[in-house]
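Thought: the user wants the 3D structure for the chain below. I'll pass the sequence to the structure tool as-is, report back what it returns, then summarize two notable features.
Action: structure_tool
Action Input:
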Amino acid sequence: MIPSLPLAHGIGAVRDLPVPMWLFYYGAGAALIVSFIALGALWKKPVLERHRDGRPLPPWAQRVLLGPELRIVAGAVGFGLFVLVLLTGAFGEYSSATNIAPTFVYVVFWLGLVPVVVLFGNVFSVLSPWKAAADAAAWLGGRLGVSFPAASRYPERLGRWPAALGLFAFAVLELCYPNSASPRAVALAVAVYSWATWVGMALYGREAWHRSGEAFNVYFGLLSRIGPVGVVERDGRRTVVVRMPLSGLAGADRIAGTIAFLTVMLGSVAFDGFSRTTWWVDRLFDIESKVVTDSVLLSDLVTTAVNLVGLFAAVAVVAGIYLLAVAGARAAVHRRDALRNDDFALSLVPIALAYAVAHYFSLLVLQGQAAWFMISDPFGYGWDLFGTATFEPNLAAIKPNQVWYVQVAALVTGHVLGLVIAHDRAVSIFRSPGAALRTQYAMLVLMVAYTVGGLWLLSNG
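Observation:
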């Protein structure tokens, strides 16, 4: 019998902790304060920026990793999985417990790729089915003597705004729509997003849209900059380098829409936690009870609309707190032109990773096991293609308290790394260590607020 695993975002509740809950809050805050003091005393000059370019891999490795052969094979794999998700979602069994489409999109792809890109760089850039299909169409057109020039140049002012909108739309599907785990909904969403992506590539060119406008490539690309492997431009050529972890996030990122994208990354996960609190569930129930109707469609629309308001509010709060911290840092040095709003934006990347780990670690471990039996029967038709259809996931693989410890460790570590990146940026902007340190008081308050807020959401979800 195939076990039925719901697409839940966590397991159980925190129970029987060896120390009171409030001690975790104070401990997390103390860890950040100690880290702040250590950075101020020991980190007087920029370190991460000096190692940003890294050390190139040997020429043979460059040829393998950047060569057309790997890109073609990886693109074919990515496009094949894309077709599988589209077909299973559209024509397979309706249940998410047996149809592989929801588990693949929300767990294998969305969560499983995160540790991969952090460790090995942005592998999604070569796995992207949308880029692979566009490249294949361009190659085939070239063989037939037909070209597909971009309709116009990608406007600099657009920056990452289209990617931020795409990521927000994905969050709406995942967190706001009550039937987000429906295979049909997943298939429709994949089809709509694919159409929008290929239209963007037709308008502005494959590379330009893939680099700045495609939400998932931007998402995995930013997360990959935490890790030790990256691709940089050297003498007009792309080069794979090994570098100090976090150094890929050093310096400023002046691309428009970056703050919006990062706050969607953080705010969407924060809303996921908040939407599971008793307060939000009660409010949602009260609103739904006032519009009781026989129409399932209307009920779903009301639920989606209310959740959409909450999601937008969460993103706005995250953005507002960040901008307030930057304003505080600017006021600390008494120079309105001393800092731009995006000077510390990349310090939010490790925090976004920490939020993702804290909120979805248990989902990846538990629901990720379901992919093992689903791969033998992706449509849910009763097949056993690879002999794994009878595999039973271990639902006791992790306990609620173990999840809590991982969550606390992830949140504290992510915010400490955020402090490190912000401090390195500050000492590179200001020649005076004292001035650099004064700007970081506001960032410390920001990190403490994000940490305590994250712990509260997780413990009350």
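Final Answer: Structure generated. The chain has one domain: 21-460. The beta strands are 55-56, 229-234, 237-242.
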